[in-house]
UniProtKB/TrEMBL annotation:
Protein name per Swiss-Prot or TrEMBL: Actin
Lineage per the UniProt record: Eukaryota, Sar, Alveolata, Ciliophora, Intramacronucleata
Pfam family membership, one: Actin
Alphabetical UniProt keywords: Cytoplasm, Cytoskeleton
Organism name: Halteria grandinella
Catalytic activity: ATP + H2O = ADP + phosphate + H(+)
Amino acid sequence: MEADPYSDSMLKSPIVIDNGSGVIKAGFGGEELPQKIFNSYVGRPKHEKVMITTDSQDTYVGENMEKYKGALKLSYPVEHGIIVNINDMELIWRHVFDLLKASPKEHPVLLTEAPLNPFANRKQAAELFFEKFQSPSLYFQTQAVLSLYAQGKTSGVVLDCGDGVCHCSPVFEGFSINSAVQRIDIGGRDVTYHLMQLLRRSGYSFHTTAEFEIVKKMKEKWCYVAPMGQLGPDELYNLPSKSQGIGLSMGGAGGTDHQTIYYLPDGSPVNLNREKILAPEILFSPDRIGLEFPGIHEMVISAIKRCDVDLRKTLYNSIITAGGTTLLHGFGDRLHKSIQKLAPKDMKVTIIQPNNRLHSCWIGGSTVSSLKAFSRYWVTKKQYEEEGGYRAILMQSM
């Protein structure tokens, strides 16, 4: 009997890659937190090279590019959870293996993805890992399900809001109710882009991809979700800007906030007023930027309503948030009140905001991939080659 050349590799720790639209988190299964976290973009010089230096490169990935960011054009290989540039994605995944000092031929790989992604997305990832990286085995799992594993729960609704996608996945007693999964292609990157546009209207000039990343830092530090009912739609867009301060309760952040000054890397100030409230509003009202999507609170309600009536009470009582966008100040309070308003009368709505929600997807992947019982779920390279590969990946389930 011919020995399987990949059997020994199953004894190696699996590599878990949370493949976000904005951030890559990577590490080994069984560990508490990801070892490596870096932005999911690739930089290329936007100016002609006239001097040869020791660290001159054609492409930059991860921490290698931070000091050159202003001279680079940034490209994002994942948009709204979907790989749009497989060549740049390959550069990022190679960087993951380099950072972890691990050979892709020796470790199984668990790769996360957003639910309801097109099969073509999974197909090209499988081709890359099995055919180019020669990975011994591969497993795909949706981010929301892994976030539930991270909390040690078997039932609940996971609202995962990342950089490119917000999705809602109901799970009952360990069974994902796939027919009820909801998704909208809006996320933290859209909030950043909207903030960038609002600042332009206020007279500031932000245009390049490097400046986009500066605005992203502004968003993460100062943007917050206004409490429900505190501002009406018309009032919200007539808030004072630039020279006039405003006083509003920050909900989840606490206290009263007035005009905020953010200093750019060159020392010039940016006054943030209405912009820091307006930008996150698109999560609850995507129509503000012309998108015909439901708000995230409406998405949660829709997902629960698609489940059996006997399950709904349990699901309303266990709505778990995950992803970096849920870290916005006031997010949980606004979400709770918005869902409570739409839920059946007297229904108890509970929003659970874990402290580890920024990494909960990766933590869930680390947990399940290290279980002995999980070994039967891997799709091996041998299966991929013998079964035509695509069928094995498509039929993969847990």
